Fold this sequence. Notes:
Low-confidence stretches: none
Strand order of the largest sheet: 4-3-2-6-7-8-9-10-11-12
Structural class: alpha/beta
Order of helices and strands: EHEEEHEEHHEHEHEHHEHEHHEH
Oligomer: single chain
Amino acid sequence: MYRCKYLAHGLYIGLNEFRHCCLYFHSPEAREEQNFIINYYGPKKSKVDWEEVFSKKKKLLQDMRDGIIPAFCKGCRYIEEFDEDSENQYSSDFDNYIDIVWIGHSNHCNARCMYCNAFVALSTKIDTKDYGVIKLLEEMLKKKIYNLEKAPDSIISFAHGEPLLLNSFDGILKLFEKYGNRNIALYTNGIKYSRMVEKFLKHNEKVSIRVIISLDSGSREVFKKIKMVDKFNNVVKTIKKYSKAVHEDNPCALGIKYIIVPKINDTKEEIDKFYDLCVNKLGVKYLMADIEEHWFIRHNGDVPDYIKELLVYLRDRCKKDNINFDFFDRAYVLGL
Length: 336
């Protein structure tokens, strides 16, 4: 018997659809198949049939309990196996509520990262306008679709484009501050600084925000190759401000990520520059490491030893200096 907490209670708000999650790239057998639920084009154009949403979720959940894993889930590290004796433990999987929302309705970005999932959409100028996501989120809160009473540790995650370019960004944070949402995950390139994010990184009784910035380099030259914009100094300034704001009780509120891109930043020299900049100059207490996704997919997850050694090298430097560290996505899958 199988289950997935994201399939049970996750919702990805996409450009023109809802999906069960944004993690289909973890499945090596069906990375191109999106875990589609229903079409959705924003409150002005679409009315959500929540019964249909949960009906489709329940169908897949039951299939998994019968041993049938959806194609877009096969091989994903978030699939859990359990036996009949523990079935009641997961009975709430079939309850109609959402406890993690990925906000991914806009591709709008101020960088052109070579590894970004949205790169093609950005290049072809697919519509990236904010389509009224605050109204949708308010509906979910009022109807307790996104249920903070049933699931007080629910998570809001900004998962597509550059969130700080959304006209609604501050409004979204204020909305969840009003309702007392404790967990917000912000994935940002750091080019644009946010006063509100800095405020939330300081101690806030109602909201806990976790900011992840992919710097991927320790030098301006390498940054430009990966991000395809000359904004290295902007990001460094943003990290410095955020790092100073992080409350000492929560050093992992700000994580700086190094995504290894083979043949571009895959050297100890560049990792050392990255480490010294983040830790010694900017005061960062939490680093992360990953492998560029498109390369990883093309090579079917067959990672050469030298890249594994680089990942371990960064991890061990952090361990030696008591810096918090995590492997992320592809690097995590390697089990180093």
